[in-house]
Amino acid sequence: MIVSSLEGFIDAIQPFENVWFRGVASPKYELKPRVHWDKIDKSCEENLIYGFLRDQFRYHTSSNNNPWYMYALMQHHGLPTRLLDWSKSPLVALYFALTQNKIDEADNHRVWILNPYELNNYFTGNSNVFCPSQMSNAMRYIEREVYFDAENNEVKRSELGKLKLLFDSYLPSNLVDSLPHRLVAHPFAIETIPLDARMSAQQSVFSIHGTDDRSLDKLLDNNILTHVDIDVHSNTKILNQLNKIGITEDTIFCDLDSLAKRLRREQNLK
Q1: In the 8-state DSSP scheme, what is residue 205?
Q2: pLDDT digits (tens, 9 = 90+) for 23-55
């Protein structure tokens, strides 16, 4: 479906409930995290994590050393991770789709629509969405009877009864205390606590990805993941509509630079 107005976009998403949104400038942007997008190997990934953990105290004063909090913090400040950003707000996702840099100027924009509950149910047999950063070590697992067979790209039922999925298995090894550590294959949808006003304003949530580096749309059915495309020629019109209802640079990014950018734009200044 292709829409050419804000009203058309809102009509297109009306049938969906309890879903997450991700806006991209072009369909050519695959649904995979930076670690997979940039083909970062395990050694490089661990060096990045180690360097951040070693030096972040110079600039960050929080005493929260929860590994999931730290991993979200890394993602939030631009370190390549296995996290992929989503939003609970369709208008936030639409704003990002319209303002990101494009691969090809002729491409339409796209807002992906994900059912996180169905994603988790498909891969684990558990339809809940958890917030691992707010769970104790003893609680950061779920028992399930199915598992994802990455080699055959299918979900199978365990012959051994219930399996235990440790959320921490998604984290890089140098963020995990328990040994041995084995990264799982399939993605999982999680919530997180907002680190600052920006994450709160953007209603940030995540999918976290394991060893399978394929784009989500190559892994999931249409009842779990779909999309709405936005006509490239309607970019300016819809962005102006968003601005009029308060979806602006500073309400999205919550900083003084964005406030100044909005004020310049409103006065037709560069």
Answers
A1: E
A2: 999 999 999 999 999 999 989 999 999 999 999
